[in-house]
């Protein structure tokens, strides 16, 4: 019989998630993770196996709570283009006005370039693409596109725009200019629909 965990797993995963967002996987040391989670190295290894295990669990936490929560809050099924607009605008408002960026974007860059993409990154980007395509098909003119090619192309374009916005936000770009770019994109999509 295993021991029960004597820590708040959600708090630990949130702390680890922020360190990985801020520093990346490679640069995050066990010492950094100890400080962020409040756990000693031995407890991290006991609970998660190793740094990679903690990362994997923290990434899943991010996927479920941050990305999934953001989609559920701003672009739930039935919200169409307005939901997507709100989802994109929500990127401009990180907690504590921070700019840690998106764990998915940061890890896509850090782990990218290989033959096999990181499965967590691939799943998260897939969720975004599927969400974009789904909300786009709620627009009557796009829904009439029998083979779905227009929704697929537009979803890919929006995914590139979404990820680009996250990079610019992380880089400290002017949020007023980014807000206008988002408004322009969705105003254009609305005129096409």
From TrEMBL:
Keywords: DNA-binding, Transcription, Transcription regulation. InterPro entries: Homeodomain-like_sf, HTH_TetR, Tet_transcr_reg_TetR-rel_C_sf. Residues 6-66 form the HTH tetR-type domain. It holds the Pfam family TetR_N. It comes from the Bacteria. The keyword DNA-binding applies. Residues 29-48 bind DNA. This is TetR/AcrR family transcriptional regulator. It comes from Rhizobium indigoferae.
């Amino acid at each position: 019989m295993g021991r029960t965990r004597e820590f708040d797993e959600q708090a630990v995963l949130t702390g680890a998630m922020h360190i990985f967002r801020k520093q990346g996987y490679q640069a995050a040391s066990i010492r950094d993770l100890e400080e962020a989670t409040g756990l000693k190295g031995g407890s991290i290894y006991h609970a998660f196996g190793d740094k990679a295990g903690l990362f994997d669990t923290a990434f899943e936490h991010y996927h479920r709570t941050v990305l999934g929560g953001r989609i559920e809050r701003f672009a739930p099924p039935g919200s169409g283009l307005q939901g997507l607009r709100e989802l994109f605008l929500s990127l401009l408002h990180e907690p504590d006005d921070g700019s840690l960026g998106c764990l998915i974007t940061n890890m896509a860059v850090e782990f990218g370039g290989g033959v096999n993409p990181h499965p967590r990154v691939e799943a998260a980007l897939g969720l975004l693409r599927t969400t974009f395509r789904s909300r786009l098909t709620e627009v009557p003119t796009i829904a009439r596109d029998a083979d779905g090619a227009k929704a697929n192309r537009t979803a890919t374009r929006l995914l590139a725009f979404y990820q680009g916005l996250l990079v610019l936000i992380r880089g400290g770009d002017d949020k007023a200019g980014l807000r206008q770019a988002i408004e322009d994109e969705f105003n254009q999509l609305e005129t096409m629909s």
